[in-house]
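W.,

You were right to be curious about this one. When I first looked at the sequence I had no strong expectations either way, so I just let the prediction run and decided to look at it fresh. Below is the sequence, 271 residues in total, followed by the output.
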Amino acid sequence: MGSERIRVDRQGGVAAVELARGDKMNAMDEAMFTAIGETFRSLGSDATVRAIVLSGEGRHFTAGIDLQYAITQFGHGGDHGRGTERRLRDIQRLQDAFSAIEAARPPVIAAVHGGCIGAGVDLASACDIRLASADAYFAIAEVDVAITADLGTLQRLGHLIPHGIVRELVYTGRRVEAAEAARLGLVNRLCESRDSVLAAALDMARTIAEKSPLAVAGAKMSLNYSRGRTVEDGLRHVAMWNAGALVSADLGVALEARLARSAARFEDLDP
């Protein structure tokens, strides 16, 4: 697995995914979007993967969409109606690449360092958890190039930080430093450097990987389902899940391990 745009390293139940275009600040071109979608669809359905860490090589997590790619992909020309239909399909394809992160069975932890700009915020917002280095910053910069953010920030960020703040950041494009991002709740934890944030993310992923994969998958499914729905809808959904899932062997394994004060060993999920 992997490509010239993405590197994947497997360590037990943890998969480390790295954006591998550091010489271009991990700016996302067509090859990068394709690789992100393919990688997370593959890892997300891999029964042996229990947690995923997403990071970027080089100085920055990602500078967002590659502007040269954007110009060629979304420029004007030709029949306006057909051009509109083509652009719609192109945007949906890019959206699907990031939605694959949200749809993945295992939790995804973003280890952000340096800049997380434009589409980078869309990317990070699709992850379950975000950790950041002290030098990290976030900017919803699409407004500065006359684009309405369209890859998930407007739909997901309001579930992470207050809507008023989201609107300010979207309308102004201003830069949010790591400390403010932590105060707002956009990131779970701050670390000193790129190396330390990656180490913290991998350590968190290993902790998650030790838990029942069925319980973790059920929790992610229920959290995603409950977003935007009523409490009653969410309660019914998780009740139906547990009505079926609690007959799993994982419950017995967990209880026996707690009683014996030993580490539980859970089987992988079915493919």
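Here's what jumped out at me. The chain has two domains: 6-209, 213-260. And, maybe more interesting for your project: The chain has a mean pLDDT of 94.

Coffee later to discuss?

I.
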